[in-house]
Amino acid sequence: MGRAFAYVILGGGVAAGYAALELVRHRNGVSPGELCIISDEAVAPYERPALSKGYLLPRGAARLPAFHTCVGANDELLTEQWYKEHGIELVLATRVISADLRRKTLLTDTGETISYKTLIVATGARALKLEEFGVGGSHAANVCYLRNLEDADKMVGVMRSCHGGSAVVIGGGYIGMECAAALVAHEIKVTMVFPGKHCMDRLFTPKIAEFYEKYYTAKGVAFIKGTAVTSLEVSDGKCNCMPQVTEAILRDGRRLPCDMVVVGIGARANTGLFDGQLATEKRGGIKVDARMRASDAAVYAVGDVAAFPVALFGGDLRRFEHVDCARRTARRAASAILQDPAASNGDNAKEEGFDYLPFFYSRVFALSWQFYGDNAAGDAVIHFGDFSPGPAAPRFGACWVGAGGRVGGVFLEGGTREQSESAASAVRRGATVAELAGELERRGLTFAVDP
Ligand code: FAD
Ligand code: NAD
Ligand code: ISD
């Protein structure tokens, strides 16, 4: 059996929702029956960031339908009903198991062949498993990953059963930091273990990390850095119980008894369906041009899975695992597919890349940070503001200095909307550090260069 569509979006996450809305809203639009979304998740696209924040709260937690896309961008809430009303075929709880780009067909795990004229690949990324690092135990009832709603439901259940107990968090990145905050809110004692010298080592400087580690320590979180969990002690699941982890064992032999484990050890782009069919980037994304078009002209890739040329970085190929990028690349591909002249990004789009300013953020406890630009820019980082752990509402930041003393990247903790706008604008226009300092000072953030 088979069905045919003009447009198929493969994947039903953030990028899928934003692409669908853009396709519907575009002045050339899509007609009912033309668009299909295939997702192995059981629900319509939603704002994934909610899973590690509002969803995990002990009280007043966020639940669907409140965080379907595109509410994260203060836009319309796309419920299943919305897809129905717009004649969009939402094929849920269905996994695509193979893709034949020559025939323009996708085969699903229900045995259906779905064909397309244009395919948007929005398969996102998957959480790396402990087993990929030689550690067993992911199957245990109290080991939690966090990528989708099912994972989040499991984590909520496990946290509720561990109130007053202890957790080991493996990994000191985004998932580790955000989940540790949620565990503290559930009154669970947390020990974080990761191999780096400090938390969030892909982005934070040691000085920024020191602030957050002190803040977490004051909340009762313990850090064990520069080492790894080499095995998990798993009970054998007697009496019809599921196996449970009882201890995490570190490389140096230390044993950490625990009631639950949360794992956040990185993600990999889901590109496997296209191995040998699409050009890929060496760090794992599907290579696309400034219009998000892949090496096969009928295929576009968006979100976590896409490595695209960034105009701001002279056309360097980059792949980001962040929601703002998913939203913008999705809209970009949708406009390009329907040939909106505005999507051409100017005459030099092909050469210079997509006009995109990288933006990352996180919210934990009462803290909230944003980052704009490139933290690989230049060598020098200037820290400013008050890094002492004392103030209830800390306000500080860091500026990565790029070529010619220009602002390459800016980090702000506790920044106001105006300060964030100054930061974003400084990176975008390549302002000097002095210009940024002046602007932030005028907007109430003292920019004192470190001694
Ligand atoms: P996804 O949203 O992951 O969607 C991919 C979809 O494709 C999923 O529905 C998946 O099930 C489906 N799929 C994959 N393969 C197949 C297949 N073969 N067949 C059918 N369906 C398939 N970013 C931020 O900037 N800020 C945050 O605060 C933030 N918080 C996050 C919190 C969590 C818990 C996680 C996991 C990520 C967070 N991110 C955050 C990252 C952000 O959510 C991702 O960058 C974004 O979701 C990427 O969108 P996407 O559509 O590319 O991928
Ligand atoms: P990450 O790359 O942010 O962090 C991985 C962490 O695991 C690092 O601290 C790393 O040192 C550590 N690590 C690597 N191998 C390890 C090992 N064998 N043992 C112990 N630690 C190990 O990845 P993540 O935190 O798992 O996040 C997964 C995805 O979710 C990413 O795409 C991320 O961007 C996304 N996410 C983003 C946000 C946000 O932007 N606020 C929030 C949550 C999740
Ligand atoms: O997607 C990301 C992310 O989370 C970062 O910290 O890109 C950056 C790079 O890893 C560093 O610029």
UniProtKB/TrEMBL annotation:
EC number: 1.6.5.4
InterPro entries: FAD-oxidoreductase/Apoptosis (IPR050446), FAD/NAD-bd_sf (IPR036188), FAD/NAD-binding_dom (IPR023753), FAD/NAD-linked_Rdtase_dimer_sf (IPR016156), MDHAR3-like_C (IPR048618)
Monodehydroascorbate reductase 3-like C-terminal domain sequence ranges: 357-448
UniProt KW keywords: FAD, Flavoprotein, Membrane, NAD, Oxidoreductase, Redox-active center, Transmembrane, Transmembrane helix
The keyword Magnesium is annotated on this UniProt entry: no
Cofactor(s) demanded: FAD
Catalysed reaction, written as an equation: 2 monodehydro-L-ascorbate radical + NADH + H(+) = 2 L-ascorbate + NAD(+)
Residue intervals of the FAD/NAD(P)-binding domain: 6-329
Main enzyme class: oxidoreductase
Domain of life: Eukaryota
Record keyword Oxidoreductase present: yes
An annotated Gene Ontology molecular function: monodehydroascorbate reductase (NADH) activity
Protein family per UniProt: Belongs to the FAD-dependent oxidoreductase family.
Name of the protein this chain belongs to: monodehydroascorbate reductase (NADH)
Source organism: Brachypodium distachyon
Lineage of producing organism: Eukaryota, Viridiplantae, Streptophyta, Embryophyta, Tracheophyta
